[in-house]
Specification:
Oligomer: single chain
Strand order of the largest sheet: 1-2-3-4-5-16-6
Distance between the termini: 36 Å
Number of helices: 11
Radius of gyration: 23 Å
CATH topology of the largest domain: Aminopeptidase
CATH architecture of the largest domain: 3-Layer(aba) Sandwich
Low-confidence stretches: none
Helix content: 25-40%
Number of domains: 3
Structural class: alpha+beta
Mean pLDDT: 94
Largest sheet: 7 strands, mixed
Length: 423
């Protein structure tokens, strides 16, 4: 007989059990020596967040009053296409007790999360997957790939650095304002609504250099200096933790700071969604002379990470009613296969008039039908992949291929989504 399970928000006394389950599910995130004091601090941090931050909530799955799994839900604001800020549900730390694996607890927690946000009128959720294939089955589409560039300081150009300086805790508010200005002009960015809190932590835990113009902070570079793995005590790398800039001058000025570190720094490691950064480097090759085909030499490594999911198709297009989708006019029928959220499964008639969408009754006429599963649709609508690519891969079907180029323009974006928020 299936045991009854209940999912509810965690209270203070639940966090000892949550910590043990979380540590078992994510051993790589646990320090080698996870002392009692470290555990106590982690629990206190979680309890404080759960009780005081209305945008972050911990939930647990209980079976016969015993915690067997948990999840953290983040209420985000995300920038779509640079002209619309919408609510987005972030899903993190999905964990299951090792004794209860393969009992569909993760599935129940994800269903709870989707219902939680669907009922609150959200149209979109996102997560960082432990296994992309697992979440693809739940309708999540792969987002923009992350690039890691590894280069020597001498690969950077040196300009002037009169406008750069160290930032301190007194600059937390300016950092927050700079970040959110950048976020509101960048597709895919998640805004930080906790004021200066995140930046107080940043300033306390790493070095931060800022770029000012007319007394206004318009860029910053947060980094750590770490010993080269396997190298001597004299060899160090700079790891860029966050790099935000609002102008080419800020971009070049902050990188000038890095260029002047070549006497002490071996290499600089930079993680970014920018696929074109190698064009800025004097020496675009990374990590030596590794060749990947003929004499093509490695410039960076890439990885998949954040995934997106549209949980309410009608609401999505309703919220984006003022956005211009490629400037195209078309009566489009989209047939979406969604086995995880039944309310999403079905056909939608959307009339695009000079790019602006309007959801129409499913009985209305259409010029072309597009059939696609919800995971691929989520990647497509976020601009992480083009329609022609999906069509060529056999991952989308069209009733009339004469509309392929038009639809490719319809769903194109100026840039793929940039999402750097860790959660």
């Amino acid at each position: 007989m299936k045991k009854k399970r209940v999912i509810r928000k965690l209270v203070d006394k639940d966090f000892n059990s949550f910590l043990e389950i979380w540590a078992g599910a994510y051993p790589g995130a646990v320090p080698d020596k996870f002392t009692g004091e470290m555990k106590r601090q982690k629990i206190e941090e979680w309890i404080k967040t759960n009780n005081e931050n209305a945008a972050v909530n911990f939930y647990g799955c209980f079976q016969d009053s015993t915690l067997v799994g948990g999840i953290i839900l983040y209420d985000f604001k995300i920038n779509l296409y640079t002209d619309q800020i919408v609510d987005c549900g972030g899903i993190g730390e999905v964990c299951v007790d090792l004794l209860h694996k393969k009992e569909h607890i993760s599935k129940e927690l994800m269903e709870f999360a989707h219902n939680h946000y669907y009922d609150r009128g959200y149209c979109l959720t996102c997560l960082y997957p432990f296994r992309p294939d697992f979440y693809a089955k739940m309708g999540y589409g792969i987002g923009n790939k992350m690039n890691q560039y590894s280069f020597e300081p001498k690969s950077l150009s040196v300009t002037q650095k009169d406008n750069i300086s160290y930032l301190t805790l007194e600059d937390a508010k300016s950092l927050s304002e700079c970040f959110n200005r950048y976020a509101t002009s960048t597709h895919g960015m998640i805004l930080r609504s906790d004021g200066s809190s995140t930046f107080n932590q940043m300033l306390s835990g790493m070095k931060v250099i800022g770029y000012r113009e007319d007394e206004r902070l318009i860029g910053y570079l947060a980094f750590r200096i770490r010993k080269v793995e396997g190298g001597s005590w004299l060899q160090h790398n700079i790891h860029i933790m966050e790099f935000i800039y609002e102008s080419p001058k800020a971009f070049r000025g902050l990188l000038t700071f890095l260029a002047t570190q070549q006497d002490q720094v071996h290499r600089i490691l930079y993680n970014t969604h920018d696929h074109d950064f190698h064009h800025f480097l004097k020496e675009p090759r990374s990590r030596g002379n590794e060749s990947i085909f003929h004499i093509f030499q490695e410039s960076n490594i890439q990885g998949v990470g954040i995934m997106y999911r549209v949980i309410n198709v009608t609401k999505f297009f309703s919220l984006l009613s003022d956005h211009c989708f490629g400037g195209q006019s078309i009566k489009l029928k989209i047939s979406i296969q969604d086995t995880f959220i039944p309310e999403n499964n079905g056909s939608y008639i959307i009339h695009f008039q000079k790019g602006k969408p309007k959801v129409i009754s499913a009985q209305e006429d259409n010029e072309v039908e597009m059939s696609i599963d919800i995971a691929r649709f989520s990647s497509l609508i976020m601009g992480a992949v083009g329609l022609s690519k999906l069509y060529n891969y056999g991952l989308v079907e069209l009733s009339d291929t004469r509309f392929l180029k038009l639809l490719d323009k319809l769903f194109s974006t100026d840039q793929p989504p940039f999402t750097i928020e860790p959660f």
